[in-house]
Every structure is written in structure tokens, then in C-alpha cells.
Amino acid sequence: MESIATPCLPSPADPQPDPPARTMPARIASMLRTVRILLGFGRHLAETATHRSTSTDFNAIAACFGTSRLSTILAHLQRGLSRAAALERVLLARAARGRDIQFVFPRERAATTSPAPADPPATDRPPAGQLADPQAGQPAEPSAEPPAVGQSAEAPIAPKLARPSRPFGWNDPELFMPTPEQLDAQVRRRPLGRTIVDICLDLAVVPDFCTGQFWNALFDSIRLHGGSVAVLMLEKVRREKAFSEEQDKKIGSNWDWQEMGREAFRCMLGFFIGEAADAPFDPMPKPYAQAEAVPPGPS
Q1: Does some domain include residue 81?
Q2: Would residue 48 be called left, alpha or beta, if left means φ above 0 and alpha means ψ between -120 and 50 degrees?
């Protein structure tokens, strides 16, 4: 029998002890759990859409994308999964430096109206029956000397630089799919809540498809980190309107998708978003251990 040659491997160095387990920062651990639930849901939805996109029950999900075209749905799912993976990488890199994420609160707008000026003191008012001095309060006469040669009377205004134009289709995943490097850079320079909103839009995450507990956690992740839930809900309404207009142009289409509720979604995917939180797709990285919960006190 012919023997198989064993590759020559370098001799291992002295075994190094495993790095000590560090406590995952609490806010990063909470957001990582949310992101990994979204990742698991997006992967399952992409597989389901590939096999069941022709089913009439799938229209309840397709309405959240604004179209029933499978290519468009899969493109959004791919970008949403890539963006969620980028957010996961950024969070893990920050945790490796021992830094937690901070809450981002909305800025208070300054008052647009200023109070009316108070009346001048009585000592500045002319006596009754006497006219005010016409020269009082007037600015001094400008200097008669002309400005120096080569100098302008007014300070020059620097021209505004035009913002670089975005390429055509920059927000259409079918035309332009960002690279992982581009997504990493985008996640780093934007509030984390805005990134979560973009992930939810690409994965068609809406409150009706989530458990109450997970939606509350998702709501807080968006609100406390610079995102806007209103943007998510307004886009949901716009997509449902676009889906209705698309169905009106199809022969044989019906309005059954509007009557499908939470149970239709659960029959299609098998679970609500947040129910599979303990599935294998939600592991915690080995070098970290999630902070232990504080034991409850005596009741």
C-alpha cells in the first residue's frame, strides 16, 4: 500500500497560557446580543426567501421590502448581513481595547427667539417737551482715507467647497454593494444607532415580527445610540405603499397579504425575531465572558 507523505510541520514553541478571560463591557455585550439575533434572523430569512418566494404567504414579508422581486430582496439581505457583521467587528475591536460604548443623547436646540430689549434707563431719556439730540446714538463718520492699494474694504469670503457627489445608485444594493472595508469605515464614523436602523431596513425588521422583549431591546439600542425609530417606521409605511402599487400592476394579484398578521409570519419562518436568542448562531467569543448578572436580593 502506498503511504501518504505527512507534511513537515515546524516544531511548536513552548506552549503559551491562554489569555485571561476579560469581562465583556456590559453595553457592548447587550448590543452584540442584539446584532447576533439580527444576523441569525437575516440568514434564515435569506434561505427561506430563496425557497419560498413564490408562495402567496411570502407577500407578508415581501411587503416589508417594498417589492416581491427576489433579486432585490436578496441584495438587501446581503447588505444587511454584511453591515451587521461590520458592526460586530467594530464592537469586538472596541471591547478588545477595554472600552465600552457610550449613550448618545439628542442635542438641545438653542432658543430661536431672543427676548425683547429692555427700555433704556430713565436717565437716558430726554426731559418732557425736549427733542432728542439728532446726533446722539449715531455711529461715527467713516474715515475719509481710502483703503490701501490691493486691500478690499470688506474681508474676502472663502468659497465653499462642493461636496463630492455620490455615485449613481449608491443606496441601491443591486447596483452598488459596499465592501467590508467601506462598511467598517462607515460604522466607525456614524452613531451606532443609525447603523442598527440601516440593518433593520435591509433585513425588513418591523415590530410585528419581533417578540416584545426583543423589540424593546432593539428600540433602546437605536434610541440611546443616536438612531431614530421614526425613520424605520416611516420607511415601513413607504414600502407598504410601494408594494401595493406593484401588486396593482400584476394580473391575478390579491390583497390577502394585508390580512396576514403575526401568525402568518411565524408560519413562514418558524419563529418570531428574538425567540431563537439561544440558538448556536449567538455564541460569545472565547476570550470574553459576559458579565454575570447581579443575584436578586431577598424578596
Answers
A1: yes
A2: alpha
